[in-house]
Write a structure and sequence with these properties.
Elements: H1 24-32, H2 36-49, H3 56-63, H4 67-79, E1 83-91, E2 97-103, H5 106-115
Antiparallel strand pairs: 1-2
Helix pairs in contact: 2-3, 2-4, 3-4
């Protein structure tokens, strides 16, 4: 299948991966432009299979990608109102308590849009 050419010239963070500084940070953000959307979709599909939720580290391990590629996608999905944190915490790979994330339900999405 031929991928359509995307025009990224008019897009910027948060619609594209971003960086606070240039150099290596910007190079890393640029390298994620084409894969960020796919990774967000994989996170959503994975969370659909785990309705009680999972940590970003658990999701990265399940999908088989680096946690460094997944954590920003969780932030983007929170920003977009697609996922939310639960009160539950689990230890991550570094031994720290990590948020367990779950999908926002259709009912929750509906109540968010009608309260505005």
């Amino acid at each position: 299948m031929i991928q359509p050419e995307l025009d990224f010239s008019r897009m910027k963070y948060p619609d594209l991966p971003g960086a606070k500084t240039g150099g290596a940070s910007q190079a890393a953000a640029d390298s994620m432009i084409r894969s960020a959307g796919k990774l967000r979709r994989q996170v959503v599909e994975t969370l659909q299979q785990f309705p009680l939720g999972m940590t970003a580290d658990e999701c990265a391990a399940y999908i088989g990608v680096s946690i460094l590629a997944i954590r920003p996608r969780f932030s983007e999905l929170v920003r977009d109102g697609q996922i939310t944190g639960t009160p539950e915490r689990r230890l991550n790979g570094s031994g720290r308590a990590a948020t367990v994330w779950r999908l926002v339900s259709a009912e929750e999405k509906g109540s968010i849009s009608t309260d505005a």
